Amino acid sequence: MLYEKHCSNCHQQDGQGLRRLYPPLAKSDFLKNNFNPFICTMKYGTSGSIVVNGVEFNKLMPGVPSLTELELAELATYITNSWGEQGGIVTIEQVSQALSGCAPQ
Ligand code: HEC
What we know:
Elements: H1 2-6, H2 8-11, H3 29-33, H4 35-44, E1 45-46, E2 49-52, E3 55-58, E4 61-62, H5 69-80, H6 92-100
Antiparallel strand pairs: 1-4, 2-3
């Protein structure tokens, strides 16, 4: 439900993103290699050039500052266990730790 509400408009229900506009979350190498920034991005958004699975994106993603640590953990768990992935459970402690490293952008 959280994913549908906050993310699927852009990243799509199947996590494939939308052409060169919105990067994929499914099988995203960027996401796999950047766990803490991933958590920060959901809450605070991001911008600037990034490369996901070999394709460059450079667009603003608005964050959802109202997301709680529990909701971020649920979203992260959902995303890392969907579309053929099995990333295990993301805990509130992991989210907390990730958040302590990011400032609002
Ligand atoms: C308004 C459209 C929009 C919404 C809504 C949105 N994103 Fe994004 N997202 C983007 C764009 C655009 C980028 C690329 C940003 C850049 O170019 O720096 C991005 C980048 C990302 C990335 C890093 C790149 C990748 O594909 O691995 C992650 C992870 C991500 N978003 C997750 C989420 C999650 C989770 C949500 C819901 C909480 C969400 N996004 C909501 C547009 C959106």
